[in-house]
Amino acid sequence: MNSVWTNSWIRRACLAILLLVVLAPVFGWASGAVGYAEPVENAAEATGAAAAATTIHSGIFPDYSVPVLSTPLGTLTSALVGAALTLAVSVGIGRLLER
Length: 99
Prior knowledge:
Layout: H1 8-34, H2 39-47, H3 49-52, H4 71-98
């Protein structure tokens, strides 16, 4: 069976994803610097739905951060975990489909 890492396009894709993960804190800082807000949050504020919302579960990484870490380090950690989980699930599904 051919190893996943022998394909050069897979190595290049993984390096590109790693670069984006490393740059995630920069993207987070830039979005705050320009005042970016999610469109769904903007719509909720405009309609008054945000005031009536209650949080049932804030998630594992609320706002793409880790509560005990600084903002850039928390963003980097959540990006690493998210990319690793996505890669693991994708590789697992790919191996199941190979059979």
